[in-house]
What does this fold into?
Amino acid sequence: MFNLNNPEVRSAIIDLSQNLGKIVSIIPFPVQNGEKIDDDYSFTDKDIIGEIDESITQEAIDNYITSRHWFMIRWERDRRLAVTDVWAMSDHTMTDKQIAYRQALRDITTDYSSPDEVVWPVKP
It folds into this structure.
C-alpha cells in the first residue's frame, strides 16, 4: 500500500480520487470514532474512507507530487521575475548581472530534470 504517513501522499490520493470523480478521505481512525489521536500516530488502511481506485498507483502519486513541486517552482520563479520587472522598464538599463539573473530564472524549468535539484540564482 501507500505511505499514508507522508502528507503529500495522502493529499495526492485524495486529489487523484477527486479527478476520477471518487470521494476518498483519509482521517485518523481514532478521530472517526470521536477519540483523540496521539502525537506519534501512524496512519494505516483503516484511516481510508472510501475506496482508492486501482488506477491510483505509486507511480501516479509520484508523478502528481512531482508536478505539484514543479508548479511551486514555476510560481516562485514568476514571483522572483516580477520583483525584478522594474529593471526591464524603458527608463532603466539592466546590468549584465541583472540580465543573467533574469535569464537564469527563466531557464529554471529547462535546466533541471527534477524540482528537488533546483538551485536558485543569487539576485545581484
The chain has two domains: 7-56, 70-117. The longest helix spans residues 58-84. Strands lie at 25-26, 48-49. Residues 1 and 93 are 57 Å apart (CA to CA).
